[in-house]
Design a protein that fits this description.
- By secondary structure, this protein is an alpha+beta fold.
- 45% of the residues lie in helices and 24% in strands.
- A hairpin with a 5-residue loop joins strand 3 (92-97) and strand 4.
- The protein starts with 13 loop residues before the first strand and ends in a 10-residue tail after the last helix.
Length: 182
């Protein structure tokens, strides 16, 4: 979890650091397996049916097509997955994503007005879902493919709402749940 350490203030405490769920890597993995199998099959056919220097040219062409396909459809999504971070500290929620163009958003805990999650049957089977954070900025922010979204929701809810109640100035002055009598 070395990445978020540089983002934190000296007395800020890291509570959670996650990458998106591994289901984002399913299709890149399938693409890698299928492309490798097809490249192997094409290489075998060329070995059997092509002779001489043309054989080497065909093998190089197969390898180049395979490498381009793997870089485009497999390596790119894996790098994007690895460079996407969902971080919760005791003060804020941070989202960082991107490889060449890096984007980020910080949501202070005291600006969060509600926290929700959503996941369908397939997401529940995989243990993932969408986390919806309604901040004072207006539109709710949705983050897809958060692993163990219910636990993340509970942690964030606790940090936002339970800690707000413990810092309620009315509670500290002994006037909690008493109407204002003027």
């Amino acid at each position: 979890m070395g990445y978020p350490e540089e983002l934190l203030a000296p007395d800020e405490q890291l509570l959670l650091h996650r990458h998106p769920h591994w289901k984002m890597l399913f299709w890149p993995a399938v693409t890698f397996v299928v492309a490798s199998a097809l490249a192997g099959f094409a290489g075998g056919l060329s070995w059997k049916h092509i002779e001489g220097s043309a054989h080497n040219v065909v093998l190089i062409a197969i390898a180049v097509v395979w490498a381009l396909l793997v870089l485009w459809r497999c390596a790119g999504p894996v790098i994007r997955w690895n460079s996407t971070h969902f971080i919760i500290t005791d003060r804020r929620v941070l989202i960082r994503q991107g490889v060449l163009t890096h984007t980020g958003i910080d949501i202070p805990m005291n600006r969060i007005s509600s926290v929700q999650f959503r996941h369908g049957l397939f997401d529940r089977m995989l243990g993932t879902g969408t986390l919806i954070i309604d901040a004072a900025s207006g539109d709710p922010l949705e983050y897809d493919d958060i692993p163990q979204v219910q636990k993340v929701h509970a942690l964030l809810y606790h940090e936002v709402f339970d800690n707000q109640q413990s810092y309620d100035p009315r509670r500290e002055s002994g006037h909690h749940n008493q109407p204002d009598r003027r």
